[in-house]
Amino acid sequence: MTETMDIEKNVISLLKSHVGEGVEVTLDTNIIGDTKLDSVAVMDFVMELEDELDITIPLNRLADVKTVSDLLAAIKALRSDQ
Amino acid sequence: MGINERLAEIERSVESLRGNGQDPRNLWFEAIHSPTEATLNGRSTMLFGTNNYLGLTFDPRCVQAAAGATRMEGSGTTGSRIANGSYSGHTALEAEIAEFYNKRSAVVFSTGYVANIGILSGLPTHGDYLLIDADSHASIYDGCKMSDAQTVRFRHNSPEDLAKRLRRLKDEPGDKFVVVEGIYSMLGDKAPLQEFADVKREAGDGVYLIVDEAHSLGVLGETGRGLCQEADVEDDCDFIVGTFSKSIGTVGGYCVSDMESFHALRMISRPYMFTASMTPGAIAGARAAFQIIAEQRGEQQRLWRNCEQLYRGAQALGYEVGPQPSPVVALILPDPPAAVGLWNRLIDAGLYTNIAIPPATPNSLSLLRVSVSAAHSGTQIRKALDILGKVGHELGILPDRPMPQVLSGPVKVINGGGGRAIAAKAPAEMPAKGAAVPSH
């Protein structure tokens, strides 16, 4: 499994644990629109993701992130920076 | 979604909570009689939700100073600090605050909110990092949003989590600004400031500590300088921010620092430069209040006696309370409808408190924030506890029988340092539905 696939799996599984049972999470899931997470819950999810992946994800970098795919792209960019 | 639809949806969500009670958005006091009494809906009401910790809003020395300055210099300055809005009172207040803190410089802002956004948007620059406690006040989140620096959250009151995040950034060239608060306004808990100062010191050069003492000025510390003084880490606190709208009893904000060129901030902080300065009356009131705090006539001791009485009393009634006795006594309720119901019935019974519900609260808690003042009499606190007991039982929030044994029992820690991330207060003001993930 490639590193990218690992990250994708981690992100989706962590997001699933935040949104609870019965909510499907895919690459196209809109992180706020398709879940019941509010802005704080999303920031908490991101904080856990930072620990999971051992990277820094500044809040500013999330401004244009809507879907799981967007988030993965942001993480990829951050990992190449850090 | 257009603006009309968006606003209508917000209205609907608030309406669903409102029920038959008082609308929190539409409440005003017909008359204010003292720091602890007002008329609300035509009836006499005890004020237990004002942040008026020392009760100075009606202190004759503050009122007289404010009235005198208003007569002498007018009702407003009609200009910003860098234009026509700096009077002798503004510079005198800055000198007095610097002396009060024994720091080199102080800069006064128009409000506490403006002080935070002014410091956080002014000091750090592109390439720097702001590391903020997850439970930070909205003004801190908003300051980060205005800043060119990158913002990273760490877990509430967790020095270990901060250390971990600083380690991840150790190879990043920019300065790092760590932001914590003295007392957190939702649950009334204090920051473990000595440990945060240790982390900052160990992280080495280029790491600065900013402490917001909004709820701790005049409340903590031997001479009222706040948690930095109580924790004996004033030299580690590079920037101390605060507000005049709580213990000082007027409106305005400030930041003190020992940094040599700190005054340069006046030329780079847009919230300092582009808003009208404090009114002469507010300036004079603040000066009088700082003098009263410096005189140490026992207000702080009275406040803490009252805090203990209210906190232990609420706990004995069976309420789940915040982690430690504090001027903010948080009653933790099962859900937003319970909080709204209790808040309304307390108002009906003549007791005003503050309501706080998600997403404006940590960990999605539903809270009533009961704030204590040195000006509350023992009788008022007993009466407030009587009302809290009676209404709590009527609504089925409290157990059938009081639990006096809790009085001497251990304090339940709601959000200890090692726990899961605690939500921030700011999000009520944050763009929850704009971008899918908030920009801050």
Can you offer a commentary on this structure?
The complex is a heterodimer of chains A (82) and B (440). With 82 residues, chain A is mostly helical. Chain A has three helices and no strands. Chain A has helices at residues 3-19, 39-53, 68-81. The radius of gyration of chain A is 12 Å and the shape is globular. The model of chain A has no long low-confidence stretch (mean pLDDT 90). With 440 residues, chain B is of the alpha/beta class. Chain B is 36% helix and 16% strand. Chain B is built from 13 helices and 15 strands. Chain B has helices spanning 3-18, 60-73, 88-101, 112-122, 138-146, 159-168, 193-203, 227-230, 270-273, 280-295, 299-317, 336-348, 378-394, and strands spanning 31-34, 37-40, 43-47, 105-109, 129-133, 150-154, 176-181, 207-212, 239-243, 253-257, 320-321, 328-333, 351-352, 354-356, 366-371. In chain B, the strands form three sheets. Chain B has a seven-stranded mixed sheet, with helices on both faces. Chain B is globular, with a radius of gyration of 22 Å.
Give the key terms.
heterodimer; A: 82 residues; mainly alpha; 3 helices; globular; B: 440 residues; alpha/beta; 7-stranded mixed sheet; 4-stranded mixed sheet; 13 helices; 16% strand; disordered C terminus
Element order of chain B: H for helix, E for strand: HEEEHHEHEHEHEHEHEEHHHEEHEEEH
Percent of residues in β-strands of chain B = 15-25%
Could you estimate the helical fraction of the residues of chain B in percent? 25-40%
- Global outline of chain A: globular
The percentage helix of chain A is: 55-70%
Structure classification of chain A: mainly alpha
Beta strands of chain A, count: 0
Euclidean distance between termini CA atoms of chain B: 21 Å
Overall mean pLDDT score of chain B? 90
Globally, the shape of chain B reads globular
Oligomer: heterodimer
Number of strands of chain B: 15
| Backbone CA Rg of chain A | 12 Å
User: Count of helices of chain A?
Assistant: 3
Low-confidence stretches of chain A: none
* First-residue to last-residue Cα separation of chain A: 22 Å
Average pLDDT level of chain A:
90
Give the C-alpha Rg of chain B. Answer: 22 Å
Low-confidence stretches of chain B: 404-440
Structural class of chain B: alpha/beta
| Fraction of residues in β-strands of chain A | under 5%
